[in-house]
């Protein structure tokens, strides 16, 4: 630290800096030499940044504000919500930093700190994804040259998959028995189509081709439209579902309202019914039964909307070895 940039007056430390030929003196508001040096260091770093880039440094708070205004509105509502939760979790670690101060060491420190709070690897990975999104925008704005969150080796925080335990038909029947009629229909529809929860709760009548018994999904997780054919059981659910005169949604409650936060509602209903499985397990149930009934794994991958059949292959472990080998061989 350049001590010539420090001087004391009345016991308080001041900074003495020359900028564009002008002598600038400002109070560091401390009587502690160590603290004064740290505060002076930040001021000098700000000046160096201004000289090199031609603009002032940008804070993490400033970056997230611009990111929310320019990027966040372009993503799906569910993704937006997940990003905002992660940004909130990151604030204690990044809120006081400038964007150019964030390094791989910063990322590693956040991971260690999050692990101490018992956050799962899956949650930490989501936090890094949100952080990477903000930093990618910073790179595009020329606020920094790299993205340490994107470059960080995430193999050290591998996501541990919870073993799949698909519900039995009796458990599904027991759950439907205590549900309101509309939710019971939605549960059965999920079980017989393998659709994702958000795809089903947001399903509108205009998405259904009644003559062909097909559903066209335009709003999907992978942003790839797909068509799902309805078998007799799935069609029977749709056929018996009453329409609301003022609502476009197939599955509705109240005055034609769409279901929101359905996973939480589902969890409360399973607890009441005395069964233990998640809404997403209905999708697993469909996939495993499809393969056990001799279905083609590549066709299943298309039905489920997986970006790669490699994802679908996780279900091969739930059919007998001979069938699994045949199914895997049919995809080669």
Characterization of the model:
- This protein is 51% helix and 10% strand.
- With 332 residues, the chain is mainly alpha-helical.
- The chain folds into three domains: 3-53; 60-157, Orthogonal Bundle (DNA polymerase, domain 1), CATH 1.10.150.130; 169-329, hpI Integrase, Chain A.
- The chain has a three-stranded antiparallel β-sheet with strand order 1-2-3, covered by helices on one side. A three-stranded antiparallel β-sheet has the order 4-5-6, with no helix packed on it. Strands 7-8 form a two-stranded antiparallel ribbon.
- Helix 3 packs across helix 5 (121-140) and helix 8 (181-193) runs antiparallel to helix 10 (232-239).
- The protein is elongated, with a radius of gyration of 28 Å.
- The termini are far apart.
- 23% of the residues are buried.
Which features characterize this protein?
332 residues; mainly alpha; DNA polymerase, domain 1; hpI Integrase, Chain A; 3 domains; three-stranded antiparallel β-sheet; 51% helix; elongated; Tyr recombinase domain-containing protein; CB; DNA recombination; DNA-binding; DNA binding
């Amino acid at each position: 630290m350049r001590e010539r940039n420090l001087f004391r007056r009345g016991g308080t430390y001041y900074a003495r800096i020359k900028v564009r030929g002008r002598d600038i003196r400002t109070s560091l508001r401390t009587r502690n030499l160590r603290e004064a040096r740290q505060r002076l260091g930040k001021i000098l770093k700000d000046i160096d940044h201004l000289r090199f880039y031609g603009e002032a440094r940008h804070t993490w708070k400033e970056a997230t504000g611009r990111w929310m205004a320019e990027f966040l509105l372009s993503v799906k509502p569910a993704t937006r919500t997940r990003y905002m939760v992660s940004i909130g979790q990151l604030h204690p670690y990044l809120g006081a930093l400038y964007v150019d101060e964030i390094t791989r060491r910063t990322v590693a420190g956040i991971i260690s700190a999050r692990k101490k709070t018992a956050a799962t690897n899956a949650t930490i990975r989501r936090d890094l994804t949100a952080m990477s999104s903000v930093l990618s925008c910073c790179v595009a704005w020329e606020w920094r040259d790299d993205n340490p969150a994107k470059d960080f080796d995430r193999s050290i925080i591998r996501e541990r998959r919870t073993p799949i335990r698909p519900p039995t038909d009796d458990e599904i029947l027991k759950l439907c028995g205590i549900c309101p009629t509309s939710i019971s229909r939605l549960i059965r529809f999920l079980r017989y189509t393998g659709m994702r929860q958000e795809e089903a709760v947001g399903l509108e009548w205009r998405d259904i081709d009644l003559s062909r018994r097909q559903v066209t999904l335009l709003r999907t997780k992978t942003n790839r439209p797909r068509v799902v054919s309805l078998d007799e059981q799935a069609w029977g659910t749709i056929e018996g579902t009453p329409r609301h005169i003022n609502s476009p949604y197939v599955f509705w409650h109240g005055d034609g309202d769409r279901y929101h936060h359905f996973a939480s509602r589902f969890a409360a209903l399973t607890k009441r019914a005395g069964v233990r499985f998640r809404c997403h397990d209905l999708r697993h149930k469909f996939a495993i039964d499809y393969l056990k009934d001799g279905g083609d794994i590549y066709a299943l991958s298309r039905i489920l909307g997986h970006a790669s059949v490699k994802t679908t292959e996780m279900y091969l472990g739930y059919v007998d070895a001979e069938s699994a080998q045949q199914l895997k061989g049919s995809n080669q």
